[in-house]
Each structure stands twice: as structure tokens, then as C-alpha cells.
């Protein structure tokens, strides 16, 4: 489906009862060095990105790390966030990685280092312990505020303005002390996660050089801004401190000078080319690969940029040339399908997506749904049963992807099966977070579905669902 951006409100908004300064501290980025006041953005809806090629590559990066970290059986998911900053963070059983991280990381090893660090947080149970620290911090802050209120009340009763003023200072001091203690705890956990990452990289036979490169990037960016940072008011150690803590351990590894395999580096570069084409405009790819403008990655990015900027006719021969060079690359076939869809050749697109699905070793749900969507867009009634089958197969592997239900609704609509179409539309709204719309379509679907059938019961589940708390 290409690089598909969706907005989601499924990321929980934790700790809403705690003072805002503490919330900001807790939700601070888990890799980057961000001022505390900027970090609370994570508690809002996140623009999530879906792409079969990128998801497959990141899964390959993560799988060995998850195994040695003891996370393989926990169902950890990696979620891509459409944000151009270099950052990643954890939440429950999910690791969120910004597209900016993937774009800026020049080697697979740098991204693997980020994943290893986040895995250290999950394996160490840092989130659970952080919640305990939050409760303690909240208690400290509340005590400080109560003491301040008491002093203020005493000052008001006695008419002593200095006592009343001191009460305000006590209240602010209690919150400040709670925040500093919490941040100190977080910095300790970050150091622990860094050291765990070094261990995971060693056990998987990989270099920690990428981690050091990441912290060097942070340090250089910080020095270029000229910003003075209070080290006691941030949730992470300073970059130079992190480098100092890890440098000896990293260099002691027998794998320190080990480079990523050439084939993996090429796939990494093609991922970066795709992200640049979608997010950095027409010149993004050429700037990224100015030292190798005729390489496969640069030409792949150029083909995507040409397609995105409205010229399917010019993009098609570019992607066909790449297919001749790598005939077993499923993602070149997937992009060919996208180009043909834009050129209103749904039948040709369906063949390309079918070929992509056959070549795809990861059996991506997104490619299956793209195949089903193309069959549906042909408009031929004879193609609708196959379209529905492919869409349902993709949805079965990826049941929370709203667009899949939208395509399924269209296919059922073309078949004249209005009850199923409205149920699929209800599911689309449900997984998009539009609970009220989902209930409306589920109610309409029930009127056309057989009472007690699995579809009728699913509609009832949607009708009974509760809107998530903000």
C-alpha cells in the first residue's frame, strides 16, 4: 500500500491525575534528549505509518534482539510514527519508532541499537517500576501542596504576608523536588537500558558502534543549538555522558568493527529512499543519495518521487528497470501496483500485487489487502469474490487496520450484500476510533443480518462498545 499514514488515538494517555510537570517527565522520549516540557506530546494521538517493506525490515532487525532479551513470547509490536525527529519510546508491549529515526540512521546497526535500547526498557520492567515512582512522586507533590496550603492559610489568618508567601514556596518546592527525584530515577533507568542494549548486541554478534554514532549525533545537534541544558531537569543523561558510560564496553566487544552485510545495507538504503520520497519532497531523495545518484536506492526513491508527483507514465519504466535488476523483490512489484492504480489500470495493478504477494516471504497483510483492493477496483463482478477473499485474509492477519475494512465494504457493496458492507464500514469506524459512527453502521447492519449469526454478534459487540476515555 506504499507508505500509508493513519491517525490513531489508541495510544493511552497515562497518569492523567498527576501534576502536568510530572506527566511530561514520565512520557519523555526514550532515546532522544528532549526538554521535559516537549515530551507530553506522546500522550496525544499519534500519526501511525504502515508500509509492508519497512515493517518487514524492522522486524528482521528486531527479532534476534527480542530473542536474547527474553521478549520473543511477549507479542512485542513495533509501530512506526510519522515524525521527522530522531526518537523512539515504549508503551506497554509496543516500541514506537519515528520515521525520522529510520531516515537519519545511516546504517542498520544504528536502528538495531535503538531497538536494543528500547528492548532493555521492556525486559527490565522499567514501565512498571516507573509507575511506582510516579505514585511516590505524586505523593510528594501532594504533600508539598498541602503544606503550602497550610502555611498560606496560617499566614492569611494571622495577617502575616511573609508566612503566606512562604506557603506558595513550599508548594512549588514540593512539586519541584518530586519532579527532580523522578527525573533522577529515569536517568538511572536510561543508563541501565543502554547497558542492556550492549549485552543484547554482543549476544547477537553485532556492533555497538551504531549506538555510539546515535549519541554523537545527539551531542553534535545539542552543541549546534547553543542551548544550555540543566542536566537535572531532563529525563536522560547528557549524550557525552552516555558515550563515556558505554565507550569502553563497546570497544571491548569482538564485534565492534563488524559491518552490516551489504545486502542488508542496501535494503536499509531503499527504506530510507522510500521515506525520503514520501516525507521530504522531490529533492529529498537526491539530497540523501547525492554521493551515489545512480545506485539502486537512489533510483528507487526517484521512481517513487516521480509517481508521487503525478507522473505514472514516467514512473512505470523506472520501476520496471528495477524489477529487471531484482525480479524477486516483492516491494518493487508492490510499487508497480501502486503506480498502475494511479494510472487507472486496476487489472494490471492486481497482477502486480498478486506477484508481490507470491514473492513476499513475510506474507504481509498489507500486500494481500492491496491485491484485494485492486481486484475490487476493476469493477468486474466476477472479481468480487476473489477481492473479498483476499481482503478478509489480510484483515485476519491485521484486524486493526481500518482501511482494509473500507475496501471490504466497497467490495460487499458491489456484490449487493449491504448488511456485510455496513458491518465492514462499522468496523472501519471502530478501529479508527469513531465509536459513535461505528455504532450507527452496526445498528444498520444488524437490521440486514441474520439474528444470532457471527456477523450479527460482531455488530452487537460494536453497539455495546464504550468510547475510550480521553
UniProtKB/TrEMBL annotation:
Pfam families: Peptidase_M48 (PF01435), TPR_16 (PF13432). Its cofactor is Zn(2+). CDD domains: M48C_Oma1-like (cd07324). GO terms for molecular function: metal ion binding; metalloendopeptidase activity. Residues 50-248 form the Peptidase M48 domain. GO terms for cellular component: membrane. SUPFAM superfamilies: TPR-like (SSF48452). TPR repeats lie at residues 330-363. Keywords: Hydrolase, Metal-binding, Metalloprotease, Protease, TPR repeat, Zinc. InterPro entries: Mito/Outer_Membr_Metalloprot, Peptidase_M48, TPR-like_helical_dom_sf, TPR_rpt. GO terms for biological process: proteolysis involved in protein catabolic process. This is Peptidase. It comes from Phyllobacterium phragmitis.
Amino acid at each position: 500500500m506504499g507508505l500509508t499514514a493513519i491517525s490513531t488515538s489508541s495510544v493511552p494517555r497515562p497518569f492523567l491525575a498527576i501534576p502536568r510537570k510530572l506527566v511530561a517527565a514520565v512520557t519523555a522520549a526514550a532515546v532522544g534528549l528532549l526538554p521535559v516540557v516537549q515530551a507530553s506530546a506522546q500522550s496525544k494521538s499519534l500519526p501511525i505509518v504502515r508500509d509492508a517493506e519497512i515493517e518487514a525490515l524492522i522486524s528482521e532487525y528486531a527479532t534476534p534482539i527480542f530473542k536474547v532479551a527474553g521478549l520473543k513470547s511477549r507479542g512485542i509490536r513495533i509501530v512506526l510514527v510519522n515524525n521527522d525527529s530522531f526518537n523512539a519510546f515504549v508503551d506497554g508491549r509496543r516500541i514506537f519508532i519515528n520515521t525520522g529515526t529510520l531516515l537519519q540512521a545511516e546504517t542498520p546497526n544504528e536502528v538495531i541499537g535503538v531497538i536494543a535500547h528500547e528492548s532493555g526498557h521492556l525486559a527490565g520492567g522499567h514501565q512498571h517500576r516507573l509507575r511506582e515512582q510516579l505514585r511516590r512522586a505524586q505523593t510528594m507533590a501532594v504533600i508539598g501542596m498541602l503544606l503550602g496550603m497550610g502555611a498560606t492559610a496560617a499566614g492569611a489568618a494571622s495577617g502575616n504576608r511573609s508566612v503566606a508567601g512562604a506557603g506558595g514556596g513550599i508548594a512549588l518546592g514540593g512539586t519541584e523536588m518530586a519532579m527532580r527525584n523522578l527525573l533522577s530515577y529515569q536517568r538511572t533507568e536510561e543508563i541501565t537500558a543502554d547497558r542492556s542494549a550492549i549485552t543484547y548486541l554482543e549476544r547477537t554478534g553485532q556492533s555497538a558502534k551504531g549506538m555510539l554514532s546515535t549519541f554523537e549525533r545527539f551531542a553534535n545537534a545539542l552543541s549546534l543549538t547553543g542551548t544550555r541544558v540543566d542536566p537535572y531537569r531532563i529525563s536522560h543523561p547528557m549524550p557525552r555522558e552516555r558515550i563515556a558510560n558505554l565507550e569502553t564496553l563497546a570497544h571491548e566487544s569482538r564485534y565492534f568493527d563488524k559491518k552490516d552485510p551489504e545486502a542488508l545495507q542496501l535494503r536499509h538504503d531503499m527504506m530510507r529512499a522510500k521515506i525520503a520520497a514520501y516525507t521530504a519532497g522531490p529533492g529529498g531523495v537526491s539530497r540523501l543519495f547525492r554521493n551515489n545518484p545512480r545506485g539502486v536506492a537512489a533510483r528507487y526513491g526517484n521512481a517513487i518521487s516521480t509517481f508521487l508527483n503525478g507522473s505514472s507514465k514516467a514512473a512505470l519504466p523506472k520501476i520496471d528497470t528495477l524489477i529487471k535488476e531484482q525480479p524477486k523483490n516483492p516491494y518493487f512489484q508492490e510499487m508497480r501496483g501502486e503506480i498502475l492504480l494511479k494510472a487507472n489500470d486496476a487489472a494490471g495493478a492486481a497482477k502486480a500485487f498478486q506477484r508481490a504477494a507470491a514473492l513476499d516471504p513475510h506474507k504481509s497483510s498489507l500486500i494481500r489487502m492491496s491485491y484485494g483492493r485492486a481486484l475490487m477496483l476493476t469493477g468486474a463482478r466476477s472479481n468480487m469474490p476473489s477481492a473479498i477473499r483476499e481482503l478478509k485474509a489480510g484483515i485476519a492477519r491485521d484486524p486493526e487496520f481500518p482501511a482494509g475494512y473500507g475496501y471490504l465494504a466497497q467490495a460487499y457493496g458491489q456484490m449487493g450484500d449491504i448488511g456485510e458492507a455496513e458491518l465492514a464500514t462499522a468496523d472501519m469506524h471502530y478501529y479508527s476510533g469513531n465509536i459513535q459512527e461505528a455504532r450507527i453502521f452496526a445498528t444498520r447492519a444488524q437490521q440486514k443480518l441474520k439474528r444470532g449469526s457471527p456477523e450479527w454478534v460482531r455488530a452487537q459487540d460494536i453497539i455495546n462498545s464504550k468510547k475510550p476515555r480521553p
